[in-house]
Amino acid sequence: MPRAYFEVKTGAILKKVLYDLKNRILGVKMKILAAQLNYTVGDFKGNTEKILSALQKARDEKIDLVTFSELAICGYPPEDLLLQEGFIDEMESALQKIINASADLFVIVGLARKNPSKIGKPFFNSAAVIDNGALLGFYDKWLLPTYDVFDEARYFESGNLVPLWECKGKKIGVLICEDIWGYEGGVDSSVYLKDPVEILSHEKVDFLINLSASPYHFKKLSLRTQICKRAVKTLNCPLIFCSQVGGNDQLVFDGQSFFVDANSDVLSIAKGFEEDLKIWDTNNMKKEIGEPKEPLEELFSALVLGVKDYFYKNNFKKACLGLSGGIDSAVVACIAVKALGNQNVEGIYMPSRYSSKSSEEDAKALADSLGISLKEISIEAPFESYLNLLSPYFGKLPVDHTEENVQARIRGAILMAFSNKFGSIVLSTSNKSEMALGFATLYGDLCGGLSVISDLTKKQVYEIAHFINLQKEIIPLSSLQKEPSAELRHGQKDSDSLPSYDLLDVIVESHVEFGKSAETIALENQLDLCFVKDVLHRIYQAEYKRRQSPLGIRVSQKSFKDGRRIPIVQKWT
Amino acid sequence: MPRAYFEVKTGAILKKVLYDLKNRILGVKMKILAAQLNYTVGDFKGNTEKILSALQKARDEKIDLVTFSELAICGYPPEDLLLQEGFIDEMESALQKIINASADLFVIVGLARKNPSKIGKPFFNSAAVIDNGALLGFYDKWLLPTYDVFDEARYFESGNLVPLWECKGKKIGVLICEDIWGYEGGVDSSVYLKDPVEILSHEKVDFLINLSASPYHFKKLSLRTQICKRAVKTLNCPLIFCSQVGGNDQLVFDGQSFFVDANSDVLSIAKGFEEDLKIWDTNNMKKEIGEPKEPLEELFSALVLGVKDYFYKNNFKKACLGLSGGIDSAVVACIAVKALGNQNVEGIYMPSRYSSKSSEEDAKALADSLGISLKEISIEAPFESYLNLLSPYFGKLPVDHTEENVQARIRGAILMAFSNKFGSIVLSTSNKSEMALGFATLYGDLCGGLSVISDLTKKQVYEIAHFINLQKEIIPLSSLQKEPSAELRHGQKDSDSLPSYDLLDVIVESHVEFGKSAETIALENQLDLCFVKDVLHRIYQAEYKRRQSPLGIRVSQKSFKDGRRIPIVQKWT
Fold it and tell me: Hey, what CATH topology would domain B299-498+542-552 get?
């Protein structure tokens, strides 16, 4: 039947010509809603309600396409909850509700789904594509990050198809987060064998949607936009990057979903560190990007959001912390006040025989400027009591770190007693430089539900303090200017036990964040190799302390604990 | 050149016929040494010395083939040490030393090696095959466990070839651990897409060598032999399963390398829980298997080895622990004495106003029967001191868990003071049932370097206690018979705060180890669903405590922490 064949072919060619013509005349037009929401892991009810309410808004605004972020329905990262009986079934029920609520809408939503083949890992990390109340199908994520804090190969099988979806006559490519990161070579130590962007490059794509759950780290946004621009250059179509926002355990998601046009120009960025139902009318896009935010402002916002969501999602309200008059606890108090309100933060100043007058003044000045309540509780009586108790056993042995730790542990016990009695959560105030060398007392200043600045080097703590003080002096200048001291013995200075923070921070950053060896660090910074080796050795020796330290908020490319899994028992260093 | 071709072919056929005939007449003869050694992670020097000394023994004993276990050169599991600059280079240097020392020997040794292709993950988990001082090549592990405590996909790319190696005219198949576990379907939630045993089944294999790093859990050996027998049935050849032994962080490797003949009969098992340079002369194999060890004896041995290696490999010598007169601390003391010697274990009995006379008697009786030193240090003075300090703030609020926790934290601080002053390591004594519900005080009884029985349910603690008492009453009967109590208030019983341990243990095991839902557990055990749900809820709520608890020794299929990664912030339960 050559004639019929010819007819079909002519029809198809005609359709294609008209389609291209329409696109050329009208532009690639679409009204898109990127739902940047703050999900709680495992909160199917709450997450689904948020999604449904976004769908309602989409309907009101006559949106063509609504997209949500990666694993939106269950929140990211669900970790081993995924493996618990019943979890995936609740996900399916939630998806059904979303499908039912999608009349007149084209919806893309992230979720985990069962791997139907029964071979490989039990789940896919998927995007459900829904058109007018009907499930069109799923896209299953290809590239599964399994490095740093990510464990996706633990749960997910890798997808094998990159379908194009049709929405209002447009060809929509859907990828999930890492899928777009493999394109430019490696991420961390992963160089992927396959590349969904490359597959898509053989097709004509009108829009690329990336459902993301890309956690914040210092200066991450520019990295993300750069990666996306490369994909856009290849596919020659606009890209919508849809993020989640909020804190989940150590991870903070900064939101900042964005729109890149086909010329690789980032035209619009959604709000940072809060929810945003961002609408982009692709036929009417103007560049609406202001000055990029100060990296320190972003860092501060990330820490605030990390604290806020740890409390909010755990149904906690009040925080307490030890105020020493030093800079670390001052910065933590400022972050906590911003996150929880000054009425919900309580400081406790716990002096000993070794505390200086200026510490008391600085703690009080800080509490005053923040408007938080401050208790002063001397640790002398229990300290004396411990010393008496122990003296028959310790005899004439010299005073050492034992007695210092006793003081820190008394402070920890007092904070925990307030926490237990009044339901407030203790905030731990150790920074990354101290955590690196174990310059902190387990069960002492390492007590707490959340370690707020455990991923900031001492240098960053100072920088954040200066940022906090930009408008007015909230943190007393004296806290900023005095030499750091734990005040656990007369005349103690941090520099008695630690290298100068300048050097320490360089070594910690070079080794922990960038994985450089002692030799490289010594060479690059003109430092003595033995000195650098000794610092690295101390970092590894302190691993046991970090294992028992509270959850910390990750704000660097490589934080301790989950992102950096080092054996306690090892003889490499 | 048809004639030449014919000649070659005839030669090959002739060779094959003679080879088969020889095998049929002489049997598949080989003298094999399975070097079951105790490696320390990252200890290239020490591990290499052990390997070289085994090679010397092999030479002395005229061994045909020596095999070592998985990742022998660096120890298993190296975790993120693998990713540190320089680590893999030291592995290569160590391999070169081993190759150099392999004259006249056929050696198979486990190590990580760089992935030469630069695509995929940076390393292979490999077996180097060495013949007479020359490296023949590598076998790269196919199946990479990425579940439970295993993170192999974080580091390794999967291999794609299963070469057969020739040693003394025999065809040797080499697989690495998990490679043999995929054959029978899934392991945990992993069902592998490919199967190296299946590939080997198309060839004539004379011996299959499995280099393993399969950690102990309760009743693991029979599972291992069962898996191996299936492979043997398929390949129709003897199998040598070569294990490592020793404790590395939370994992304990039990050794017990074994030999399965071509009839799937396990003929010989190397020593459990210690090193063994086990020689099997395949031409002269007799069944030399005694009665299988009591599972409880194995469990006890595993805990002892876990403690021993934590101390030995960290260069620690002395342990101290709080002896309460209860069963948990008694069992931990017995394990510690077996591991470290009674001269290296110190008990501290720390009574309060709530302690019973019998607790003191039981603590003393235990210390006597173990021959360990016992200090008695009342916590009354610091307790009083804390109460005075806090009373202005607590006012007339009722006494509650706050005051209980203060006591536990004083005990923790005293233990830590002894640890700091005398360099002993505190052993934590919480069991899995308590850890499940968070029935333990953070920074109190959860203090310590090592949590010895944190993976034993209360039921197992009693069973181990009875096992310890089999020959003579070491643990006082009174500790075994009295109702468990934390003695933190007058007349307190564990059953005031916890379900009966019988019920609790069933729920913990069913949910944590076997992943069963509340509904399934209620149904299977005829329990009230609300009650089961409440217990599960409490398990999830206590996640934050477990995150800050010390390293524990894993002895079950599913221990808390690394093997079970649950978010702290989540709303599923």
Answer: Rossmann fold (3.40.50)
